[in-house]
Every structure is written in C-alpha cells, then in structure tokens.
Amino acid sequence: MGLFDRIKRVVSANINDLVNKAEDPEKMLEQAILEMQEDLVQLRQGVAQAIAAQKRTEKQYNDAQNEINKWQRNAQLALQKGDENLARQALERKKTFTETGTALKTSLDQQSTQVETLKRNLIQLESKISEAKTKKEMLKARITTAKAQEQLEGMVRGMNSSSAMAAFERMEEKVLMQEARAQSAAELAGSDLESQFAKLEAGSDVDDELAALKASLLPPATPANQNLLPPEQTTPSQTTPPKSNEVVDAELESLRKQLDQM
Questions:
Q1: Taking Cα atoms as reference points, which of 120, 136, 113 lies closest to residue 43?
Q2: Which of 24, 58, 181, 193 is spaced 20 to 30 A from 11 at the CA atom?
Q3: In what ranges is there compositional bias, type Low complexity (predicted)?
C-alpha cells in the first residue's frame, strides 16, 4: 500500500469519526423528514405536470378525432355531389389527421401509464412520510428516555464521591461515635453502681468484724453468786484491765484510720 493510500484512509477514517460524533439522532430525523417532504413537493409538481400534459394530449387527440370525422363527412358530401376530386382532397386531409390522431393516441397511452406510476409513487411517498413521522416521534421519545437515564446514571455515579455523600458518611460516623460514647457511659454508670454496692458489702463485713472484736475484748460476765471484794481491797491482778483497755482503744483507733483510708 502506497503512502498516499494510507493518508487517504487515515483522513477518511478521521472524517467519518467526526461525522459520527457530530450526528445528533434527533436533528438527523428532523432533517430526513424535511428532505422527504421536499421530495414529496417535487413529486407532486411532477405529477401535476404529467397530468397537465396528459390532458393536453387528450384534447389534441379528441380534436384530431373530430377533424377525422369532419373530413369523413366532407368526403361523403363531395361524392354525393358528384365531385370526386373534392372528395379525394377531403380523404387526404382525413388521412393526415388520422396519422396525427394515431401518434397522439400512442403518446396519450404512454402519458396515462406515466401518470398512474407517478400517482402510485406519490401515494407511497406520502405513506412513507407519515410512517417516518410516527417513527420519528417514537425515536425522539426513546432518545429522551435514554438521555434521562444516562444523566441519572451519571448523577448516581457522581454521588458516590460527591461532597453530599461524604457529608452523609461523616454524619453517620459521628452518630456511631455518639452511640458508642452513650453505651460506654451506660456501662460505666452500671459499674459505678456495682462498685458502690460492693463497698457497702465490704463495709458491712468490716462492721461485723469490728463488732466481733469488740465482743471478744469485753471482760467475761461475773456470776451472780460470786462474792465481790470491797473496793478498797483490790488485788494486784485487777490493776491490769486499764492497761488492756488502752491497748484496745489504740487498736480501734488504728482500725478506724485504716477504714478511713479505704
């Protein structure tokens, strides 16, 4: 393949591509209808001209037939009058109009056929134009629907990365965080309540243990029938309880401090 052939093919391909991109289906349909209507106007003019020619030929043919009949009568009249020469001239004139009439009849038949053909073509073209208009409206509706669907799909695709969708995602994330904080606060509140009850339970145990310690440190009860010594006659063994009470008080005070620090 030569260089010029390759250049021609490239140029043709680029031109075809540009034409295809420039073609608007809706505009192309409108243009097609306009061209068909122009053809219809021209065809109607052609049919009108053919019919006019047919009418003119038909009139000429009828006039020729009238002349033939007239010269036929003239020939008969001349013979009746005994003028054979005049009758011969009349027949010659009849022959001329007969030949003209024959030619006109042939032309008239051709014109009649042509007019009938043109009329059929006119009816077909009118039917095609009517059908094309119907298809045009249907195709325009389909084009409008396709464009709307394409725009809608473009909007849907654009919404995936648009600021509106990003805003919705941010709001959803904030709602999730807020729900998580609320759940955490509820769990913390529940744990605080449980810890308070645990402290109360621990405190009651300490109180019970304190009461038990107090009870164990109290002196044993004296029997009712035991002889009590006079106050002034105390034995050396009875001087120790004050010292033990001081020890208990010191231990009790230590326990209280421990309880306060808990």
A1: 120
A2: 24
A3: 230-242
